[in-house]
Amino acid sequence: MARILLLFLPGLVAVCAVHGIFMDRLASKKLCADDECVYTISLARAQEDYNAPDCRFINVKKGQQIYVYSKLVKENEAGEFWAGSVYGDGQGEMGVVGYFPSNLVKEQHVYQEATKEVPTT
Predict the structure, then answer these.
(1) φ, ψ dihedrals at 20, nearest 5°
(2) What whole-number distance in Å separates Cα of residue 111 and Cα of residue 121?
(3) What angle do CA 67, 72, 73 make, to 5 degrees?
(4) Which of 11, 23, 55, 76 has the fewest CB atoms within 10 Å around its CB?
(5) Which helix (H) or strand (E) holds 107?
(6) What's the burial of 8, exposed, middle or buried (CB within 10 Å: 0-12/13-18/19+)?
(7) pLDDT tens, 89-118?
């Protein structure tokens, strides 16, 4: 059952956007390694569990590895969030991409510095 949910999760994100559910933007800018934010910045390990509050975020389990693609530029009193992907325990399961609080993870390896400032959409 969880495998089916993971396969359809990217569609759920699109459904949220298509049906006009407007959510507050987390930040107006993000830091990436490239202009499209597709290259991996770092590999991080979750220090505790995190349950996603809405479709923009990902669920993370303690000990799980996360590939980080961008880091939101902190604004006002908002928390600091990063965007990344986690993968299921079984082989062949799709990766799930979304935001998570940066204070819940510890970077294990930095592949390249996030020096490109890109506007968020």
Answers:
(1) 75, 30
(2) 25
(3) 145
(4) 76
(5) strand 105-110
(6) exposed
(7) 555 556 788 999 999 999 999 999 999 999
Interatomic CA distance for residues 18 and 47, integer angstroms: 34
Residue 55 corresponds to which tokens in the numbers above?
Answer: 């479709």
Per residue in 55-100, pLDDT (tens digit) is 899 999 999 999 999 999 887 766 699 999 987 655 555 678 899 9
Q: Which residues contact 3 (CB under 8 A, 6 or more apart)?
A: 88, 90, 93
Three-state secondary-structure class, residue 77: coil
- List the end-to-end C-alpha distance of the chain, in Å, as a whole number: 32
Q: Which amino acid, one-letter code, is at 9?
A: L
Distance between CA atoms of 119 and 78, rounded to whole angstroms?
Answer: 17
